[in-house]
Amino acid sequence: MDRPGPSDPRKALMPTKVIFCVHGVISPVIANMALDGLEAAVDASVGTFTLTRRKAQLNVVRYVDDFVVTGVSKDVLESSVSSRLKRRI
User: Fold this and answer.
1) pLDDT tops 80 at residue 84
2) Could you give the CA distance from residue 83 to residue 77 in angstroms, rounded to a whole number?
3) CB of 69 within 8 A of CB of 42?
4) pLDDT at residue 1 greater than cutoff 70
5) At CA 32, angle to CA 36 and CA 54, rounded to 5?
6) C-alpha 46: how far from its chain's center?
7) 56 near 83, Cβ under 8 Å?
8) Less Cβ crowding at N or C end of the chain, within 10 Å?
9) Neighbouring C-beta atoms of residue 46, cutoff 10 Å
10) Residues 74, 42, 51, CA angle at the centre, nearest 5°?
């Protein structure tokens, strides 16, 4: 029975070079910076006043590198928030 190793060049391990680490320390930092900007754009989409945001019942829920936006109606989310985020991205 042949075992893979240096005698079999097809199955020998080759050195690799790490270019970008997805699970590194900087990845969550970059994700949070991007989400900060998106959250600010969502807040600005219905107005700068707290009362206006409360009327729209606009909420942003963030968890690690994801976020969910909820609102009083689908119309508010599509007309205000979605258009604002499309311009931002």
Assistant:
1) no
2) 9
3) yes
4) no
5) 35
6) 21
7) no
8) N
9) 22
10) 85
Which tokens in the block code for residue 58? 């606009």
Residue 57's CB: how many other CB atoms inside 10 A? 12
Separation CA 82–CA 67 (nearest Å): 14
Q: Phi then psi for 62, rounded to 5 degrees?
A: -115, 140
Q: What angle do CA 37, 39, 46 make, to 5 degrees?
A: 115
Output DSSP code: residue 54: H
pLDDT tens digits for 5-50?
556 666 666 676 756 556 667 777 888 888 888 888 888 887 777 7
Instruction: Decide: 6 and 12 in contact? Cβ < 8 Å.
Output: yes
87 pLDDT band, cuts 50/70/90, is confident
Cβ atoms of 80 and 72 closer than 8 Å: no
pLDDT score of 5:
53
